[in-house]
Amino acid sequence: MTNSSRMIGEGKGDLPKIEVQTKFSDAEIYLNGAHVTKFQRKGEPPLLFLSEKSRFEKGHPIRGGVPIIFPWFGACEGKTGMHGFARNQTWELKEISQNDSGVIVQFSLPDSAESAQYPKFSAEYFVTVGEMLSLELRVTNQSQENFSFENCLHTYFAVGEIGAVSVVGLKGAEYLDKTENFARKKETAEQITFSSETDRAYLNTTGTIEIHDAKLKRKIIVEKENSASTVVWNPWIAKSKAMADFGDDEYLRMVCVESGNIAENRIVLPPGKTSSLKINLRSTSLDK
Ligand code: BG6
Questions:
Q1: Which whole-number Å values give the CA distances from 227 to 32, 61, 67, 203, in the listed order?
Q2: C-beta neighbour count of 79 within 10 angstroms
Q3: Whole-number Cα distances in Å, 228 to 70, 134, 151, 161
Q4: Interior angle at CA 285, CA 283 and CA 288, nearest 5
Q5: Is 178 near ligand 1, meaning CB less than 6 Å away?
Q6: Torsion region of 47: left, alpha or beta (phi above 0 gives left; psi -120 to 50 gives alpha)
Q7: Which residues does residue 93 pair with via DSSP β-bridges, in sequence order?
Q8: Is 212 a catalytic residue?
Q9: Could you tell me the residue range of the domain that residue 165 belongs to?
Q10: Residue of 35, 53, 80, 82 with the most ligand 1 atoms within 8 Å of its CB, for mutation
Q11: Residue 284 CB burial class (10 angstroms; 0-12, 13-18, ≥19)
Q12: Which is nearest to 107 in space by CA: 120, 119, 96, 118?
């Protein structure tokens, strides 16, 4: 791809950040968490939401963009903190290259005291910035035993106004409703809309999901590979107020539709095998 550039510089909180520009789009990625904080196609509003109240501190997750959730999702018995350690650690930048799809930025997760508690593994992350944003998390089991883990690309999408948003593609799926103590339910709606706190883990959902945004007149398309779970989250009013790194009214302008493998969809990876979780994020006009 011609007309592309990339620069490594200082982001917020003096954290190292990579800026990528292509003829189609701009993106920003922090090494802290290998965290994509921005993807914006030329002439369009940003695809990803990023909180104005986010912390930008080494060792702490960024609020917005795409946190990498690994090796556990949510709370985990015997572990400290939510959503694993991958989003808190500084990933190593391995290579920046390009092909017909765009500029590819490759990271790897360094060994740490936290990773040493698991069977030996390697984790690599590929961010491709072009006409669309493609993200791939590859985990290889380098040990002699099964490696069991959860993963999730916790995409925060920017929307015009949450009341004008619907999520399409989950009808008929079973989900765990975290707002009702993980009660198991079945989705009956063709289009999921938002009028209160929503926190659901949809299971066995491998198909493409769409986010229809009537205010921005935009359709976001989430294409998944090797993702059996889809999490749909909006914190709504009370939870927004309770989160120190999230603005009180910011729930109006975001929705999380996350792709991964969690709960009973967790991955059990045999020795020597690699698991690849991949998403392609595209957007079109809502009329198309
Ligand atoms: C979602 C969970 O994926 O992440 C929610 O389903 C959680 O329950 C949210 O509140 C944010 O989590 P955190 O740890 O980033 O505040």
A1: 24, 22, 16, 10
A2: 14
A3: 15, 17, 10, 28
A4: 105
A5: yes
A6: alpha
A7: 107
A8: no
A9: 5-285
A10: 82
A11: exposed
A12: 96
Query: Is the beta carbon of 215 within 6 A of some atom in ligand 1?
Result: no
Dihedral through CA 272, CA 99, CA 105, CA 155, nearest 10? Answer: -90
**CA neighbor of 131 nearest in space, from 96, 103, 153:** 103
The CATH number of residue 123's host domain is: 2.70.98.10
Domain count, the chain: 1
**CA angle at 25 for the pair 222 and 109, rounded to the nearest 5°:** 65
Q: pLDDT per position in the chain (288 positions), as tens?
A: 557 777 889 999 999 999 999 999 999 999 999 999 999 999 999 999 999 999 999 999 999 999 999 999 999 999 989 999 999 999 999 999 999 999 999 999 999 999 999 999 999 999 999 999 999 999 999 999 999 999 999 999 999 999 999 999 999 999 999 999 999 999 999 999 999 999 999 999 999 999 999 999 999 999 999 999 999 999 999 999 999 999 999 999 999 999 999 999 999 999 999 999 999 999 999 987
**CB 150 less than 6 A from any atom of ligand 1:** no
